[in-house]
Amino acid sequence: MNQQKTQLTAEEIKLFGDLMPEELAEITQSGLNRRHFMKLVGLASAGLLTSHLIGAEQLFARAADINIEDLPESAIENGVMVSFKVNAADKKVLVDSRSSLLDTLRERLGLTGSKKGCDHGQCGACTVILDGKRILSCLTLAASCEGKSVITIEGLAKGNELNPMQAAFLKHDGFQCGFCTPGQICSAVALMKEAKDGQVSYLTKDIRTKAAPVMLSDEEIAERMSGNICRCGAYPNIVAAIKEAQSGKDVQQNWLFAG
After folding, report:
1. Which of 43, 75, 152, 258 is buried most deeply by CB count within 10 Å?
2. How far apart are the C-alpha atoms of 227 and 121, rounded to whole Å?
3. Based on the number of CB atoms within 10 Å of its own CB, is 17 exposed (0-12), middle (13-18) or buried (19 or more)?
4. pLDDT tens-digit readout, 81-123
5. Which of these ranges, 68-72, 160-164, 245-249, has the smallest mean pLDDT?
6. How many CA atoms lie within 13 A of 59 on its CB side?
7. d(Cα 137, Cα 95) in Å, to the nearest integer?
8. Share of the chain above pLDDT 70, in %
9. Nearest CA to 135 among 200, 186, 199?
10. What is the tally of helices (H) and strands (E) in the chain?
11. Tally of CB atoms within 10 A around 146
12. Interatomic CA distance for residues 23 and 32, integer angstroms
């Protein structure tokens, strides 16, 4: 990430002045860099940004506009130029022909929302939406995405308006540590289209019937989301969030207590 001179807003100045006063002078003089954002991520994980939500929101949104330093051609073996859309923006990047879409998104385009979990296609943390279908970006070659459209967790919201699935996950606490959440949400968003199109699952009783929209039950959601693992075990809340996002109706939370 290149360091660039940044004009801080009043809310951002207050945030740095209160929580990172030792960084304020450097940022004002030289600009934001990756180290500053990593410190903010650490503060967010510790829950220390709640009193500075506006400034933090502005800074995290600003991260998408900071230039990513490109690699010289000599540093890339077996280079291939890939042109595709990422979150509705045209991208053209020179990548190693063996590079995964996940590594390209994270390391070359700075979209770190998609997470690298197992890196073997088993956990679902890297799930993104490719031409309307959910895929595992760790198993997808970036070069195979030529001319296609990719949507990551960063591209689901419209400005400050959350995608309904994101809002439902927040309402129902469909996450704990949050590592798997980007993949869970992208998978769930694509699942809505699959259900609307009447795509069958292992639980479909008669696959010969004409495809019709599916109203997802708890069992259907569990089956269709089985490729996305939550090691924290937030599955009941994830199911509730998906049901509410599909139906548009309030879904009551069921709390289970150990006897």
Report:
1. 152
2. 9
3. middle
4. 999 999 999 999 999 999 999 999 999 999 999 999 999 999 9
5. 68-72
6. 28
7. 15
8. 77
9. 186
10. 9, 5
11. 12
12. 10
Q: pLDDT value at position 209?
A: 84
The residue among 83, 73, 72 whose CA lies nearest residue 143 is 83
Q: Please give the pLDDT value at position 60.
A: 54
Instruction: Let me know: does 207 contact 220? Beta carbons within 8 Å.
Output: no
pLDDT of residue 4: 46
pLDDT tens readout for residues 196-243: 999 999 888 888 888 889 999 999 999 999 999 999 999 999 999 999
- Asked whether the beta carbons of 220 and 203 are under 8 A apart, the reply is yes
Provide the residue count of the chain.
259
Distance CA(61)–CA(56), nearest Å, equals: 8
Alpha-carbon distance of 203 to 216, in angstroms, equals 11
- Set out the domains of the chain in order of their start, with CATH numbers: 10-63 (no CATH), 73-155 (3.10.20.30), 164-247 (1.10.150.120)
- What's the average model confidence in pLDDT over 181-209? 93
DSSP sequence for 75-96: G-TTEEEEEEEETTEEEEEEEE
Structure tokens at 158: 């419209």
Q: How confident is the model at residue 42 (pLDDT cuts 50, 70, 90)?
A: low
Helical H segments across the chain, by residue range: 10-19, 21-30, 34-45, 53-62, 101-103, 164-171, 181-196, 218-224, 235-247
Where are any strands of DSSP class E within 98-241? 127-130, 133-136, 149-151
